[in-house]
């Protein structure tokens, strides 16, 4: 038996490393177990998000957007650059350097907060002991007063598209190609599929996306989703809805995707394929049977409203428990759990968690959609305003999309805020703050926003909730 700890966190992704740092700040003796090995063969913190998810994908989205702008859109600004050369290897290298910088920064924060990083696979044992299997196969056992399980999630694989080589990949593989495929297939029109499809389309691929659902972005407010769908179609993303992949025939130089849609059996030929059909909680081998950890029917760790498992002193956070699989949700759960362990009365608020899809245009939202309000029988009023009538958006040459606000019919309290358009990922923060502060649409309508700014669209949408937008034609009520 080695060191005793106040808290051992199993998993060093966004939820785990944030929980560990907050525990240490609160004076708790803390260790964090993380097994990740990066591209260079070195141990790394940050989990999926920092290493092969949120951060590297945004780096490539940014690079590819600059390439597309230089290649196709700068002339509208009176800037003629001639032919534009593409160095994909350098693009990938830049992405990797950003990842290394950020994961290295977490290691420095662990040092500064005196957190022990136990490098290996962590497993919960009985009596809040944690075994750590190191990369050389050796094992150590540590005692904790409290354990936080933050083991994240893994990509879902499908038998109709087995990942046999670098031509059929998940999100991690799609971040590391150093040549642009002429024809690219994507299975799944969710966040990962749309973002990765957008990266490679901008760099020159012909992209076809097969989505099994009949509705595009079913979790998104459908007025917003339809507007986004129209923009993606204009850009050349071929999104086939109601298309279920049956088989992938792997040839010497191409892949044939056999799928079914409303018109029957179909085929499409591509050079590479990204499988992005979702993620599942990583609960494989995270607890010994003797520990008695309970999972729910979907394989997630079962927790109560305070993120406590069925075992006293053992908590679980992030993708491994119920709720949206979002890094920022995991981070906040990590903070709340650390503070509860330290005796504070913290609790998570789930009603206004923001969602973002970092395509162009960006899609973002918080709170309820119009479809959810109708289903729940909640009386509401809606106001929207187009970026096409916004001076800043026009100056940016990004005037597509809208802001939409949903408010309670009786109280005027904001119930949801939805965006499709430029910098939606930043603007949605205004919706989160408004909802957390229990603001009304009138509160936003009476707030002064800078001119010219994209935020003025939030202002106008708030006015439009009651049919009094200034710079747009109001709907008859």
Shape: globular
What is the fold-level CATH name, i.e. the topology of the largest domain? FAD/NAD(P)-binding domain
Mean pLDDT: 97
CATH superfamily placement of the largest domain: FAD/NAD(P)-binding domain
Q: End-to-end span in angstroms? A: 71 Å
Cα-atom radius of gyration: 24 Å
Described by strand count, sense and barrel closure, the largest sheet is: 7 strands, mixed
Strand coverage percent = 15-25%
Enzyme class: oxidoreductase
Domain FAD/NAD(P)-binding: 5-334
Cofactor: FAD
Keywords: Cytoplasm, Disulfide bond, FAD, Flavoprotein, NAD, Nucleotide-binding, Oxidoreductase, Redox-active center
Descriptors for this entry?
seven-stranded mixed sheet, disulfide bond, Dihydrolipoyl dehydrogenase, Enolase-like, domain 1, flavoprotein, alpha/beta, 22 strands, five-stranded parallel sheet, FAD/NAD(P)-binding domain, globular, 477 residues
């Amino acid at each position: 038996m080695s060191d005793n700890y106040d808290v051992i966190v199993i998993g060093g992704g966004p939820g785990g490393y944030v929980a560990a740092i907050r525990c240490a700040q609160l004076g708790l003796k803390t260790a964090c177990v993380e097994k990740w090995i990066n591209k260079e063969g070195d141990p790394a913190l940050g989990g999926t998000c920092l290493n092969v998810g949120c951060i590297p994908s945004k780096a490539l989205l940014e690079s590819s957007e600059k390439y597309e702008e230089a290649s196709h859109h700068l002339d509208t600004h009176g800037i003629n650059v001639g032919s534009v050369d593409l160095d994909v290897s350098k693009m990938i290298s830049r992405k990797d350097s950003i990842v290394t910088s950020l994961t290295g920064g977490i290691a420095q924060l662990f040092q500064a907060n005196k957190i022990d990083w136990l490098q290996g696979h962590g497993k919960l044992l009985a009596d809040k002991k944690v075994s750590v299997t190191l990369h050389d196969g050796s094992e150590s056992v540590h005692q904790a007063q409290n354990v936080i399980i933050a083991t994240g999630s893994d990509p879902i694989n499908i038998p109709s598209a087995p990942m046999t080589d670098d031509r059929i990949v998940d999100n991690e593989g799609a971040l590391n190609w150093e040549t642009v495929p002429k024809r690219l297939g994507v299975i799944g029109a969710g966040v990962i599929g749309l973002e990765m499809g957008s990266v490679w389309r901008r760099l020159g691929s012909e992209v076809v996306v097969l989505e099994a659902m009949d509705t595009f972005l079913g979790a998104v407010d459908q007025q917003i989703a339809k507007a986004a769908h129209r923009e993606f179609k204009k850009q050349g993303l071929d999104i086939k809805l109601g298309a279920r992949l049956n088989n992938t025939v792997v040839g010497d130089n191409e892949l044939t995707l056999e799928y079914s849609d409303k018109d029957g059996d179909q085929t499409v030929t591509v050079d590479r394929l990204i499988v992005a059909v979702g993620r599942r909680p990583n609960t494989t081998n995270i607890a010994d049977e003797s520990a008695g950890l309970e999972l729910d029917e979907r394989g997630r760790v079962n927790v109560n409203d305070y993120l406590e498992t069925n075992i006293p002193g053992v908590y679980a956070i992030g993708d491994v428990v119920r709720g949206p699989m979002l890094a920022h949700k995991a981070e906040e759960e990590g903070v709340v759990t650390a503070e509860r362990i330290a005796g504070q009365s913290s609790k998570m608020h789930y009603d206004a968690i923001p969602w973002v899809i970092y395509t162009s245009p960006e899609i973002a939202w918080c709170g309820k959609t119009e479809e959810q309000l109708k289903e729940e029988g909640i009386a509401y009023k809606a106001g929207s305003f187009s970026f096409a009538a916004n001076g800043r958006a026009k100056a940016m040459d990004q005037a597509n999309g809208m802001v939409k606000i949903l408010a309670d019919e009786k109280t005027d309290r904001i119930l949801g805020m939805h965006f499709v358009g430029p910098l939606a990922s930043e603007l949605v923060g205004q919706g989160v703050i408004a909802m957390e502060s229990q603001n009304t649409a009138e509160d936003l309508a009476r707030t002064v926003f800078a001119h010219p700014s994209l935020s003025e669209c939030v202002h106008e949408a708030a006015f439009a909730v009651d049919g009094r937008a200034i710079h747009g034609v109001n709907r008859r009520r």
